[in-house]
Amino acid sequence: MKILQGQIVDIKNKRIFKGEVHVSEGKITNIQEKEHDVNHYILPGFIDAHIHIESSMLVPTEFAKIAVNHGTVATVSDPHEIANVLGIDGVNFMIENGKQTNFKFNFGAPSCVPATSFESAGAVIDSDGIKQLMANPDIKYLAEMMNYPGVLFDDDEVLKKLEWAKHYNKPIDGHAPGVVGDDITKYINAGISTDHECFTYEEGLEKLQKGMKILIREGSAAKNFEALIGLMPEHYKNMMFCSDDKHPDDLIIDHINKLCARAVAKNIDVFKVLQAACINPVEHYNLEVGLLQNGDAADCIIVEDLKDFKVLKTYINGELVSDHGNSKLQTIAFKNLNNFNTSKKEVSDFKVAIKSTSEKINIRVIEALEGQLVTNEVIEEATSDNGNIVSNTINDILKMTVVNRYNDDQPAMAFIKNFGLKRGAIASSVGHDSHNIIAIGVSDEMICKAVNLIIENKGGICAVDVSEEKIVSLPVAGIMSDKDGETIGKSYAELDAMAKQLGSDLNAPYMTLSFMALLVIPSLKLSDKGLFNGKDFKFTDLILPQE
Prior knowledge:
By secondary structure, the protein is an alpha/beta fold. It has two domains: 45-289, TIM Barrel (Alpha-Beta Barrel), CATH 3.20.20; 347-539, no CATH class.
């Protein structure tokens, strides 16, 4: 028998009382009011309601080692990233690795592999694959339906995937950035129950009013806490917190606990905040996670106060998994899987040739936005040199490439603003959603050097300059490390610092870079097949017709 003493936070009944929690064989056997001198608080553990574990660059067991230090006991995890590289084998890898540690991962079936037909992925999961996954009791839901045009236009394969989720009575996650009006009504009526992609208060409010659950997302790149938190006082029963994508250096610092602290700092009732952070994900996704009730699994945390939510201890199934910031979870050995089949490139592969240099040439440029997955399309005058459009560091118009990592194909080329590099190049094989190689640089030579460094390592993120190169290798599917979280977090922080020394003033340049090939988020993106207009959902030309 284990007895936990403290001020017990009863979220559902909105009361706090001094008492004891009795735990035996991983279950709560009794909760009783009792006077004592212990003033810290006992509450259910936090849940990240939508996250891609792969974006932490850690395998599930290593992610868990860090997350428990912040009071996180469970995640609702979409293994979409590894599925785009390795298909169902990748999904099974995540499930089996997650089972090796005392943490409650809840994986979904990735609904969009590949995300679109306008890019090259390493695998395909069709409706038959979704049927296979949905029959698996380890799969808890159908993960985000990013192909919202497929829903709106009644695509047969998309509808079959939705039907299999309904057949197995499992929730369906949404992904509908900016979709409102009659379109969002049809999307919801297809059975889709959540969205984590709302940009504005008004968008979130409409979706809530039409019956959706809205997730407040605060990741390493995409942040909509400030836009949406004002909805919580009235709609807390239908809201949750999530990270979506969180890099390892950020995960070491905080997780859902930080969002709770920020919400309370805005004078939102603490019970409403904790309802979103602890209760709603369990009830919506039917998770096997305890809610601090008699008979529940003893998945609970002890925090210093209900203001900063400093986590003192984390328990999962009654086992102490974190004690004052010291994780008790162990590193687990595993076998690497990968899918990397492209050859090293030549500098000439990154040339953007033009026929005439005597006339003004205008090009479409991707404008990256701080803290957003969306981009703008801007028109800029091209800078050329010897019949080749080149980067212009003065105006911050940099050359960008996406290189197919599954086959030897010609790199796709574009230009981008707001990365700010003045020297060198950065590159990554973490490129949502197909995870081809993305690179941005000040010259063709630097871009080629960065791309080839990624190819040599069969995956990673890197920064290069004339006399320096630094890489964090990601040998697991080309998107995750085989090292522990502390090591990868430190290495990533050093790489992030180098990117900023090269001139980038973005808060998270590599996270932002990883989304510049995400075609399902408007407006202008680049796939390995070409420049893509996310609003019209079709390819577009880099060079505008001359007048």
